[in-house]
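Module 6 notes. Inverse folding takes a fixed backbone as the condition and produces residue identities as the prediction. Think of it as a translation problem where the source language is geometry and the target language is the twenty amino acids. Below is one complete input and output pair. Work through it position by position during the lab.
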């Protein structure tokens, strides 16, 4: 391991078969940051830390995606924005409602119901 290094980003390498490479890394004693998975844009990726402490990311391009047909998972962003809205509403209502964990949980629950109807 390189002592005194401030490097936080992993070294990235392109491989032909991510799954076979991950199995080989597992046998060599690597600790996985995350297991192999496929991104929506076509790359299959995993990240690990080798026995010497170096962080690695290995990538395989599984399929091509054209930019005009690329659909990002916007539902995650919508859910995050909705949660932020709920928090802002609850903060606004704080002076008018007695605060307890139960009241806060009920407020989030009812606002979620309103959102999904």
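Target side of the pair, the amino acids:
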């Amino acid at each position: 391991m390189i002592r005194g290094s401030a490097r936080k980003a992993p070294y990235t390498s392109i491989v032909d078969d991510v799954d076979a490479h991950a199995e080989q890394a597992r046998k060599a004693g690597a600790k996985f940051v995350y297991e192999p998975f496929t991104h929506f844009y076509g790359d299959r990726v995993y990240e690990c830390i080798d026995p010497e402490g170096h962080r690695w990311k290995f990538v395989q391009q599984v399929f091509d995606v054209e930019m005009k047909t690329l659909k990002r998972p916007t539902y995650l962003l919508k859910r995050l924005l909705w949660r932020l809205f709920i928090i802002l509403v609850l903060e606004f209502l704080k002076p008018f409602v007695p605060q307890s964990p139960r009241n806060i949980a009920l407020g989030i629950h009812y606002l979620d119901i309103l959102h999904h109807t």
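Reference fact for the lab report: The longest strand covers residues 31-38.
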